[in-house]
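User: two proteins, same treatment. go.

Assistant:
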Amino acid sequence: MPFENTGVVEICPAPGRPAFAFTQIFVSETFEIPEQKPDAEQIILAEHNITLEDVQLVKFTDPAGNEWEKVFVAGNIYKLVQYSAAVPEQTVHFVKFQLPFQTILVDDCGNPFPLGTIPTDYVVHVCVEKQIVTLLDERHILVEVLLMVWLEDAV
């Protein structure tokens, strides 16, 4: 039985602070519990921390001479998983996994923005809309995360 947060995990974006541009991405990976840790019986809790590692405004000119821009975003989701183990000495254990992600923020139709359209003072946010953490067997955990990445005017 997977550990699952039902419904929206976080409010993305906050009410009253509209997104200029957004995208949703799905990140999934199967992780092996480190050798020094005991086998897992059941997942108790799954938490996360998100870091942005690279945010760049990418400007370019197409063959017709039109100038465009888009925002490249890269980061990591660090999943902290608490699980129970069938060992009498210590029944609760923690493991931490890293899931990298990358995306590009473009307009609603998937096109870049005309040069000068993106606010000069912007902030990029990332939140977890849904997560499912599944114990596949005693040594493997599947982590599935739906992210929303959005840009808002910082002014």
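Protein 2:
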Amino acid sequence: MTEHGRPATTVRVTRLVHRGLTVRISTLGTPGDRAFVLVPGIGVSSDYFERLAPRLDAHGTVHALDLPGFAGVRHPGRALEIREYADLVGAAIDELGLDDPVLVGHSMGTQVVADLAARRPGISALVLIGPVVDPSARSVPVAALRFLRSSWHEPRRIQVLAVRAYLVCGVRWFLRVLPRMMRYPIEARLPAIRASALVIRGEHDAVAPRAWVEEMGRLLPRARLWEIPGAAHSVMHDHADEVARLCLAHLEHPPGEGSSTEDASAELRRFPEGEEHPDEEHADFAPTVSDSIRALRAQVAEGVAILRGDDAAIGRAKTAHAEAMADAAERARRRGARRAASSRG
């Protein structure tokens, strides 16, 4: 966060090679109380966190990872198991010198961070967004149908990001990794996790249904469960403010400390309670034509840089995109503030 309260927009891109596997790391913000490590899902890129990351940087540096075979990162010669992806994330944490970072995973990324947290008792905080795979849907046809149902409720921006990411990833690599994701038994790892866990689902997320998230709450030793109204599988994008607020509140008051009945029961709750669409910035967030052109140019530049393997150029493109989105968000914030002042008057 800058000194004027505006989210940081400068993105630094580096990469790590560990045992022949490459991970690309996009870093946002300056050192703070706690670093965040963000891990996206199968086939997609760290751009899925483009709206969440700037909202976390006030608390600490944000490191968003692109895993082998995804987002233009070099394909390994074979499909990787979830545990191998987790080992690579652990190597990135060690290389960056992070002390007990907050692990944030989305979709398949929840499997990766859960696997790592189960084997690293020093990790004290974990965020699982749209967790997979529900044991009752451990078949590709069922999972695909659920994904399509959820996609119907996703914003256009996520649909564009998904198409672009899957084209870059390639169908062949996606289909090689998919069976590993489908058979990974995350439910068997959850009881071994000592970290305080925050589990978040969107109201319309058929990939992570309510019953499955509630079962996770029973399996995790220390957990909070939240459902965000109006959201789908990629809840951290279209409802970034709400997800960020949940993350920061979770760090401030971890479950298991105090006498909250919420901590004792791990009940699935709606956030914010009693409000259907509380995110005023989300309601007003509508980039201008100029913002959209700037963002499009940045994305084209990023795509070219990815093809060239130019990390510095990727960082400049991501920074340009973040600046365009920050301008749009700032206008939305000001509109919300004026509306609030008018209603008080």
